[in-house]
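Entry for the shared binder. Reason: the reviewer on the internal report wants the predicted structure included alongside the sequence.
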Amino acid sequence: MLLSELVDRRELRLRVLHGTAADLDRPVRWVYTTDLPDPSRYLGGGELVVSGLVWRRSAADSERFVAAVARSGAAALVAGEAVFGEVPDDVVDACRRHGLVLIAVPVDVSFGTVTETVVGALSAARGDRLAHTLGRHRRLLDAFAGGAALTELAGSVSAGTGLTCRVLTAGGRLLAGPPLPDDDRDAVVAAFLTAGRLPVSAGRHLLVPAAPGTARAESWLVAAESAPGDDPGGPGPEAVDAVGELAAIAALDRARRREGVAVARPIADDALARIAAGEGDRPETRVRLRQAGVEPDGTLVVLVLRADGTPDPAGTAHTVLVDALAGAGPAAVGVHDDAAVAVLADTGEPDPVPAVLAALHRLGPGLGGRRLHAGVSRPSSADALSGALGEAGHAAGLAATRPGPVASARAGEITSHVALLAGVPDDVRRGFAAQVLGPVLDHDVRSGTGLAETLATFLDESGSWSRTAARLHLHVNTVRYRIGRVEELTGRDLGSFSDRVDLYLALRSR
């Protein structure tokens, strides 16, 4: 109900003592009757404050009361004339100073009549609004049940509210609605992941969760964008309701997609197990990949994602990876060795991997102590998928050594033994070093002869006896003796390139 509609009720005979026609266009949220000197603690904004002015003893009382009501955002002050015969001038002056609409109630009109009029109008309006909301919600559900795509429903809500509605994953992958500039998408996702409470406003966007109760990083959201120049206070209640209804439909769509993913996952898991066993080129594996969602006859890329610090690492990684792959093209997504693994079709136009990794990295602010590390293989054919799976796993291991809540690496980055060893688990590296160098290290502990130091220097000097002797300030014959002892203790021949590599990597793995 607007103030103007209340004033127009002739039976009430209300008089406007202060306020313009524009001021009377303010809506009334509720009625609050009071004679407290300062009622501000009980006001939330938009109320019609009704008072008999019993609190007034002087102009200072009027100033304090009116200032408190205006500061609380009340729609208007309705003052009774019964106590003073008319509204005192100092009350009128205070309302002018504070920009508060002032309406006088005749002596023979009770406050109860004014209250009943406002409450009745508000109740009727809310009933109409509820009926309209239920009708709109029913239409959206009917359209969804009839097979309407999420994009169509987002467009329908956008047209009805004047907002631009988009449905996004928590990593910013667009599921419905028009494209969003990268900077805006980053800001929207960060605000959604870090907000203390939802829904939340972020700039011109109203952000509503589409899967309440789900971890933020695994959820979806609706981002409703106001046009430049729209009300800075944000969309009105009806528009907010419509966005909430779209979020509810998006949650249903998410659940439906999850059911499809759950059906495909065992098939993808079986394909990955076969690939890991070196059977990527078998017809059965190709059939499984095709059934899981990717055509095996083209160029493929493997992406491995691991999650740390969560009760269900594989499940969390799988959910996050499925969302990050939205819009990336055909992919088979399963779980292998406690990691989520995706086999993607790589058409090369454009490369789908950067957008997937970007979506994963955007999740960082919402992980709350958990970590994600992803590794990507080089492009491969189905015949070489076993190697690609290994490459992606090593790259994920390399990513795990990097700082930050989300880290990623591609197989092309593993270009030296340093990067390669960084992708090997610590216990594996130490075990390899102990197996190869154990006798040498034990001998050094017992005798203090420095065989390991001599070996490291010898390899650094590319097997040069003289340069090794010069660096260690030893006679060449001493170097020859020590290297001979290393060969005896390890069973390796330092004249063999492969044995030199074993010893070199063992030294670097300690």
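Summary line for the report: The chain has a mean pLDDT of 86.
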